[in-house]
Amino acid sequence: MSRRTPETNTTAAAPGDAGPPGSGSTLVDDLAARIRDMIMGGEIPIGGQLRQAELATTFGVSRTPIREAIRQLQNGGLIAVHPHRGAVVRVPAPWEVREAYEVRAELEALAARRAVARITREQLDALEHDNREMYEQSAAQGEGRTPVHRAANDAFHTLIAGVSGNARLTRSIEEINGAFPRNVSSQLIVDDSRHRDENFAEHERIVAALRTGDADAAAAEMRSHVIAAGDALARWYEQRSSTVFVG
Q1: Nearest CA-CA partner of 170 in 104, 100, 99, 74
Q2: Count of domains in the chain?
Q3: Which end of the chain is less crowded, N or C, counting CB atoms within 10 A of the terminal residue's CB?
Q4: Together in a domain, 57 and 100
């Protein structure tokens, strides 16, 4: 039985596109991650257009991998493509936010429960430091400025998820967090002092439960905290989606 000789692809790669096998996927994944970071940080705002030519120039590539990266983000629900506007950062419906945060609340509650038996004193101290940093940075910022405290808030939740010792759980939490632009929830803490105070106090209660080794309390406090954050974010979209964003 004769064996078929594999065909050789002699098509030259376009400038900026990937050449060697496998590198195309890596380039597209990298571009998708970088565009996602621009969206999460508010550099490309909600409802804003993603212009392929501008992105290609920004990243020094051709439009082909940019197009594939946009398609990847569209499949993930972060971007929508409209007939006359092209690709835009999708405006999530309030009910989508509440549903996602309901799931996130259960996942992070499980992470907090698992973390009780694994967390160290140094990690607990790090959580308290992150919480104070989040509060102080957000309180010092003015309305409309790009939030710089987001890293501290994310570090708080990321540490607990990591300590849970379940990689699949951590990935699931990250996937939900990546479904919505993070700059919006961060700006809420800056603009609303009451929400900021509540967020700080909720974090404190989570750390207290972790310190005392109360798994039930840690899970309950985390669940309540995430649900409250989801409600605040959903209300923000409810108040602004009909007047600010164009779909």
Answers
A1: 104
A2: 2
A3: N
A4: no
Q: Which residues contact 161 (CB under 8 A, 6 or more apart)?
A: 108, 111, 169, 170, 173, 174
Encode pLDDT of 139-151 as tens digits: 886 544 445 567 8
- What is the biggest distance separating any 2 CA atoms in the chain, rounded to whole angstroms? 76
Spatial contact of 105 and 223, defined as CB atoms under 8 Å apart: yes
Please give the residue range of the domain that contains residue 222. Answer: 94-240
Integer Cα distance of 141 and 192 in angstroms: 11
* Tens of pLDDT, residues 204-226: 999 999 999 999 999 999 999 99
Measure the N-to-C terminal CA separation of the chain; round to a whole number of Å.
Answer: 59
What pLDDT does residue 142 have? 55
Q: Are 107 and 221 within one domain?
A: yes
DSSP string, the chain: -PPPPPPP--PPPPTTS--STTHHHHHHHHHHHHHHHHHHTTSS-TT-B--HHHHHHHHT--HHHHHHHHHHHHHTTSEEEETTTEEEE----HHHHHHHHHHHHHHHHHHHHHHTTT--HHHHHHHHHHHHHHHHHHHHSPTTSPPS-HHHHHHHHHHHHHHTT-HHHHHHHHHHHTTS-HHHHHHHHHH-HHHHHHHHHHHHHHHHHHHHT-HHHHHHHHHHHHHHHHHHHHHHHHHHTTTT---
State the Cα–Cα distance between residues 149 and 187, nearest whole angstrom: 9
Q: Which of 68, 89, 110 is the last residue of a domain?
A: 89
State residue 12's pLDDT score: 37
